Amino acid sequence: MSQDSNSDDSNNINDNSNENNSLDALDISASELIDDKTLDSFYSREQLLSVIAATLNYIDEQVKGGLILPYFDDIDAEQWQEKIKVLDIYITDEDEGRELNLEARQKDYATNILSYPSDLPAAIIGLMPTLPLGELIICHAVMIREAAEQNKEVVQHISHLLIHGILHLLGFDHELGQAEQDEMERFEIEILAGLNIPNPYN
């Protein structure tokens, strides 16, 4: 998904420092209404990369154990493990967040995070040097408001919803039924525990 954004080189990240080298590129961009102080305070590259790396490392281990990724079920486990992943993140304000949610889900309000999977056929992915996961749209104002309402630290809430969004990009969907919701929540809780972040559902 392409959005008008105010991004600079400091938010375009090519980082190979995480443990298993699973993430090759993280492209972060933002609406003109999201200032640099907000980005630095809540969406620093180190913070986002640590959460993404923890999520991908966890999923890699689950795939080794036989987990099928719904949106990548036509890619074998070995190819998933070998392909270096690419992720785009866009931080927006509440007005644009509402417009995007209405366009994507026909819901007339801003939501915390929107997930846009890459939806590429396996044959195409097989020819690519990297595996695009898709794009996440984060509405900062909603994140701030929810964290306050739930008595959570903002960065911890963002970390949780970032994991949640990545799982959606892989095809997991809590709206399909109780079993799917339980599975997704278990993944989130276990990944967050590895980051020393408490269970958000308690």
What is the structure about, briefly put?
By secondary structure, the chain is of the alpha/beta class.
Structural class: alpha/beta
The H/E string reads: EEHHHEHEHEHHH
Low-confidence stretches: 1-20
Helix content: 40-55%
Strand coverage percent: 15-25%
Overall strand count: 5
Distance between the ends: 34 Å
List the strand order in the largest sheet: 1-2-3-5-4
Mean pLDDT: 88
Number of helices: 8
Task: Give the radius of gyration.
Answer: 16 Å
The main pleated sheet reads as: 5 strands, mixed
Tell the overall outline. Answer: globular
Describe this structure in words.
By secondary structure, the protein is α/β, with parallel strands linked by helices. Helices cover 47% and strands 17% of the residues. The chain has a 5-stranded mixed beta sheet, with helices on both faces. α2 packs across α7. The longest helix has 20 residues. The protein is globular and about 40 Å long. The N terminus is likely disordered.
List keywords for this structure.
202 residues; alpha/beta; 5-stranded mixed beta sheet; 8 helices; globular; disordered N terminus
Topology:
Elements: E1 12-13, E2 23-30, H1 36-42, H2 45-64, H3 77-82, E3 84-92, H4 94-105, E4 113-117, H5 122-127, E5 130-139, H6 140-149, H7 154-169, H8 178-194
Parallel strand pairs: 2-3, 3-5
Antiparallel strand pairs: 1-2, 4-5
Helix pairs in contact: 2-7, 2-8, 7-8
